[in-house]
Amino acid sequence: MKRFSESTVRRLSHYYRVLEEVHAEGQRMISSHLLAEREDITSAQVRKDLSYFGSFGRRGLGYNVEHLRTEIRAILGLDRRWRVALVGAGHIGAALLAYRGFRDQGFDVVAVFDSSAERVGKTLDELVVQDISKLPECGDIEMGVIATPVRAAQEVADMLVAAGVRGILNFAPRKLRVPEGVAVRTVDMTMEFESLSFALSQTRGKSRRRAGE
Amino acid sequence: MKRFSESTVRRLSHYYRVLEEVHAEGQRMISSHLLAEREDITSAQVRKDLSYFGSFGRRGLGYNVEHLRTEIRAILGLDRRWRVALVGAGHIGAALLAYRGFRDQGFDVVAVFDSSAERVGKTLDELVVQDISKLPECGDIEMGVIATPVRAAQEVADMLVAAGVRGILNFAPRKLRVPEGVAVRTVDMTMEFESLSFALSQTRGKSRRRAGE
DNA sequence: CGTTCCTTGTGAAAACGTTCACCTGCGGCT
DNA sequence: AGCCGCAGGTGAACGTTTTCACAAGGAACG
Ligand SMILES: NC(=O)c1ccc[n+]([C@@H]2O[C@H](COP(=O)([O-])OP(=O)(O)OC[C@H]3O[C@@H](n4cnc5c(N)ncnc54)[C@H](O)[C@@H]3O)[C@@H](O)[C@H]2O)c1
Ligand SMILES: NC(=O)c1ccc[n+]([C@@H]2O[C@H](COP(=O)([O-])OP(=O)(O)OC[C@H]3O[C@@H](n4cnc5c(N)ncnc54)[C@H](O)[C@@H]3O)[C@@H](O)[C@H]2O)c1
């Protein structure tokens, strides 16, 4: 089966977001140029990305907003709902639970687990926090979110995999070892800070260029 | 001035983290192979990455852990402290404030801003939440974190830039327009979910090679 | 001192991703 | 209808990143 680059998939998400906006504004058609403009992408890149998956546009006209939106939904797997388990009901976990954006895109957090006696049993955003030992029994879950301290992350990942999860969103700053067929995306905020720190260190002392937009 | 790829910088962060671990374990030397092993990188990649910045190893021996650690600290700009302003004292903002990891790496959140009357004046993690209108007056800040709703993100970015910030960590799912010389890193969790959703949709049924990243 | 076993640093090659350039198809206009 | 301008699709060119392969440096040891 063909593989698609991670960057292409990321950009599909961008396009999808732009399409949602444009759709809300009532636009019927959109050109690759306009689709590119809102984010920082060239029109050729847009066309190339979309061409990997099919021919969705019409020459001379551009893309039908509603149609392309539907197509990208299907490509990204957003034409269904996903059952997500959250492990670690701490600061990050609570913030994620409170966020409505995930549900809006089809990601339903249906179970929350923690190991701390203080948290287990409490209700958080309409979900009762369960003990982590109950994870294996929690039915049909497709994705897991790891929001535990780094030392527990690998163990939790193993449990999630054992429970049948094939996609993990990991907030612990650590590479997780998972079997083939399980996808992991790690969000590492410290690394983002370090990347900024590097960028700022590099430009230090450089002549201040005018703010050319 | 020479430019370095974003991926190289990311990996430097990885190496740095491994070095911290290995240092704590008391190891004196480490080979590129061992340095690579803990994350999912080849030893050639490690050597290539490091070679962009200098010759830090010794043939036949590997790298001195303490020395390489110091060098990478300097390269990433972690041999100093950074003053960070946080804008948006909501769910994500509160979670970030509570996190000690940033301070440990030299990132000090020294001011918190919000626009809501409910939040302004409250104390959060030893910092008094200030009204956003006070942002321009808040001394010497190098980085900003945007944890506001998406509709406020661009405006806040403009204010941060006006206040002299040259690095922005953005949690709002939106591309920010900033002048040249200002670095932005956007953490978009919905996009990560969508990336997982895509990966799972692709591998549906058939088991294929796609281990964790 | 020579041999052996490591491991780095780095050109060169390969793989990968992005941009270019152009052909084709479509609607509108005269 | 015929022409024009617009815009998608796509092979080829280009640039960047990763991998390969190996020469050279270094330590240990008899
Ligand atoms: N809070 C942040 O802003 C932030 C920033 C960057 C990275 N992170 C990372 O995110 C993760 C979570 O951070 P946080 O601030 O929410 O931490 P936290 O301490 O607030 O929450 C962690 C939760 O995980 C629970 N837990 C511990 N072991 C567990 C186990 N084995 N099974 C189930 N639950 C378990 C704890 O009881 C706690 O409720 C950490 O790995 C941290 O490094 C957090
Ligand atoms: N919470 C999550 O898990 C999560 C996940 C993904 C993305 N995000 C994004 O992160 C951002 C923050 O999310 P949140 O859940 O923390 O939201 P939140 O509503 O809890 O907090 C937002 C805060 O920003 C403040 N604010 C609004 N306008 C402001 C302005 N102009 N200046 C200063 N402060 C202002 C509000 O008063 C509020 O306190 C949003 O853009 C959201 O899309 C959050």
Automatic annotation (TrEMBL), chains A, B:
Gene3D superfamilies according to UniProt: NAD(P)-binding Rossmann-like Domain, Winged helix-like DNA-binding domain superfamily/Winged helix DNA-binding domain
Subcellular location: Cytoplasm
GO biological process: negative regulation of DNA-templated transcription; response to redox state
SMART domains assigned to the protein according to its UniProt record, in alphabetical order: CoA_binding
GO molecular function: DNA binding; DNA-binding transcription factor activity
Keyword Signal: no
Keywords: Cytoplasm, DNA-binding, NAD, Repressor, Transcription, Transcription regulation
Annotated Gene Ontology cellular component terms: cytoplasm
Annotated positions binding NAD(+): G88, A89, G90, H91, I92, G93
DNA-binding region coordinates: 14-53
Pfam families linked: CoA_binding (PF02629), Put_DNA-bind_N (PF06971)
Source organism superkingdom: Bacteria
Domain CoA-binding: 77-175
HAMAP family referenced in this protein's UniProt entry, alphabetically: Rex
Subunit architecture: Homodimer.
Similarity section: Belongs to the transcriptional regulatory Rex family.
PANTHER family: REDOX-SENSING TRANSCRIPTIONAL REPRESSOR REX, REDOX-SENSING TRANSCRIPTIONAL REPRESSOR REX 1
Function: Modulates transcription in response to changes in cellular NADH/NAD(+) redox state.
Protein name as catalogued: Redox-sensing transcriptional repressor Rex
Organism (species): Eiseniibacteriota bacterium
